[in-house]
Each structure stands twice: as structure tokens, then as C-alpha cells.
Design a protein that fits this description.
By secondary structure, the protein is an alpha+beta fold. The chain is built from ten helices and six strands; from the N terminus they run H-H-H-H-H-E-E-H-H-H-E-E-E-H-E-H.
Length: 271
């Protein structure tokens, strides 16, 4: 497990390095540009990452303090539906340069704290406790997916990498959760996932003889399971009703699904 954890920590650092390289090319005046997440500009995406990297660091370093803060937040009056969380509103009062500095400090603090994780310690979070590997994989997924929101409107390229395998596997593992978060009974018919990795290799998840199949580019599968693309705007192909249904519900992150992206928002990127 230590070897896997160390790899995830290295990949988390590399993923956030890649996003930093994008952000350094976006003039601060453009940080007010709207992304495809309704109501959120580039600055909000970065503030979100910074806030939850700080929160993840607290969970690693002081689980009791994390639990106490979580309990206080739940007991406090909740904002009305559709209102922005307090940390986003507070961040909007700060210059974009400060938001970048905040995230830079927060992401490195998280990587440093992650280096103290040992064994099979379970990490507290907003849902059930997670292994250190799953906990940090979720942070990597957040960096990649919110980074995609930024890349989509910043006109700055970001190359796909083998780090997508972490997100793809998480997307596969959370198939049942994608139903549960909608109050639906999970479809348990086996589905196999066959993805083309950035280097041309094939990644396969699931039972080898499953008749239900999802296949296509790994990056586009990751965009669907993080709800950054509607499956209709990708080159993913499905075989069978269960596979097609899953791609409509797919969600690898915790919390309510939200509206996601709608068909036709993005052109299909044919090679």
C-alpha cells in the first residue's frame, strides 16, 4: 500500500503542477471569465481548490479539529438553495493574485501532510471515511476536473497524462454511488470499461466477459464521470442499456449531481 500511496502523492503534485502551469498563462484580468460551471468564474474554481486542499490538510493533521469544524458548519444556518458558500463569497473580495498564492500554499501543504500518512489509516471526510489512497485520489480528481473547467475557457492547452488512470478507476468504482446520490437503486448488471490511454495503451476495468461495455478515450471517460461533459459530446461508445444508462448518471465525486453539462455544449473532438 505504501508504494501506491507514494505514487498517488507524486501524481497529485504533478497534476497540480500542470494546473499551475496553465494558470500562470492566464492574465489575472481574465480570472473573472465565466466557466461552464454556472455562476463560477476562473477565480472561483481556484478558490474552491484552495479551500478544500486546506480542509483536506486539516483532516490529515488533526482529525478531531476537522470533525469539530464539520459539526459546527452543519449546525450553522445554511445558505438558501443556489447561494454560494461563504468561502467563495469571501474569496471574491480578494485579488486574483492572492487566490493563486492561497492555492499554491494550500496544495503544497496538502502534499506535505500526505507524506505523513501511514498504513491503512482511514481518513475522515464529508461522507464515509476513506483510505489514504482514495482520499488523495479524490483531490487529484478535483484538481483535474476543476482544471478542465478552467482550460475550457482560458484557451491554454493542458496535455493529458497517465495520471488519468486514477480518475478513470475512481469513476468505474463509483458506478453504484452515481445511482445512490440520485435516490435510485443501482443497476448491478456487470459493465466493462475499455479506455484508450494518452500513450495509446488500453486500460480495462471490470469483468472480462461482461456484455455491457463502455469504450473510448480515457480523457473523455474522465470528463463524463466528473460531469464535465455529456456523453453525447464525446467519442465514448456504449454497448447495452446498462452501460448507456450509467454514462448518463456517472458521477465520481461526492455530493448532489447538479445539472452537469448538456448535450451540444462542446464540439466532439474528432482526431
Amino acid at each position: 500500500m505504501a508504494g501506491v500511496l507514494d505514487q498517488v502523492i507524486r501524481d497529485l503534485l504533478d497534476e497540480t503542477d500542470a494546473l499551475e502551469a496553465v494558470l500562470r498563462q492566464v492574465p489575472f484580468a481574465q480570472w473573472e471569465k465565466a466557466t461552464h460551471a454556472p455562476g463560477w468564474a476562473i477565480r472561483d474554481q481556484v478558490a474552491h481548490l484552495a479551500h478544500f486542499d486546506d480542509t483536506a490538510t486539516l483532516a490529515i493533521k488533526d482529525a478531531e479539529a476537522f470533525a469539530a469544524r464539520n459539526q459546527r458548519d452543519r449546525a450553522a444556518p445554511q445558505p438558501p438553495p443556489g447561494a454560494e458558500p461563504a468561502y467563495i463569497l469571501a474569496a471574491r473580495e480578494r485579488p486574483a493574485a492572492e487566490i493563486l498564492d492561497w492555492w499554491e500554499r494550500a496544495r503544497h501543504d496538502l502534499v506535505d501532510a500526505a507524506g505523513t500518512l501511514e498504513g491503512d489509516r482511514r481518513m475522515p471526510w464529508f461522507g464515509p471515511p476513506m483510505s489514504g489512497v482514495s482520499f488523495l485520489t479524490a483531490r487529484l480528481m478535483e484538481a483535474w476536473s476543476h482544471g478542465l473547467d478552467i482550460v475550457d475557457v482560458a484557451n491554454v492547452p493542458r496535455a493529458d497524462s497517465e495520471r488519468l488512470r486514477h480518475i478513470a478507476f475512481l469513476g468505474f468504482r463509483t458506478r453504484g454511488y452515481s445511482y445512490v446520490t440520485r435516490g435510485l437503486e443501482p443497476n448491478t448488471e456487470p459493465v466493462r470499461v475499455e479506455l484508450t490511454a494518452p500513450d495509446g495503451q488500453t486500460w480495462v476495468f471490470g469483468e472480462a466477459n461482461a456484455e455491457q461495455v463502455v469504450r473510448g478515450p480515457a480523457a473523455e471517460f474522465c470528463a463524463v464521470v466528473t460531469r464535465r461533459r455529456h456523453v453525447a459530446d464525446t467519442r465514448l461508445e456504449t454497448t447495452g442499456d446498462a452501460a448507456a444508462e450509467w454514462m448518463l448518471y456517472a458521477q465520481a465525486y461526492a455530493g448532489p449531481p447538479g445539472a452537469g453539462r448538456q448535450p451540444g455544449q462542446f464540439p466532439i473532438a474528432h482526431p
